[in-house]
Amino acid sequence: MKRHRKFPRPSAESEPLREVFAEAAYDVTPSAVPLAAIERAGRQRRRRRTAVAAGSACALLVVPLAVVALREAVSPETGDGRVTSPSGLPMATVRVVTAGERVEVAHGIKIWLTEDGAHWSSPADSGPLFSSVKEGADEPGVTVQQEGAGDWGYFLSGVYRGKREAARVEIETTEGQVAGTALTLAGGPHWGVWYAMVSAPKPVAPGRPVDVTRRVTVYDSAGGVTASTGAGL
What is the value of pTM for the model shown? Predict the structure, then answer.
């Protein structure tokens, strides 16, 4: 059987002391709860959490956009084989080749360079064509060859010789401005071949002479003109 512990009754001497403690407790006024401060702190914490979440979302959004921009810059080839910048404008290409290396530049048209000049061959020609760079070697300039290329439009090409190494080629045509590609030999001889394929309003018979080129300009890496049509060659 569980026994209940009995506590002694308070003595008569302790009763006045209890009354004193009770009166002191009633006189104590508890401080007011700082509800306004608590609400302000809560709002600040919510704002900080919202800002962090928004910043994270922005960062996640910016990363894919940066990747897209990077992919456009690194892989700018269009469906027709031309190279464009992220803005959509054509970009020139300079390719260094070895002497005698045959490069198919467009639909059966091949170009190769030797120490004395440039050579062309195409299905429309009976034999390779040759353009020497030995004559007038000290004079910068650009030559122009232009012919039809069937459904592909116009094929434009020529030899350039400049004061400095080529970095890009621009061609003004009746169909607008296009970028050319340059072939040059190793060692920076300051000369080479430029070429470009230009769309035509309708097919032009392969090898048929045309007159669509208005100006060819070869620029160096600093943006200066190193050769252009209308001089030398």
Answer: 0.61
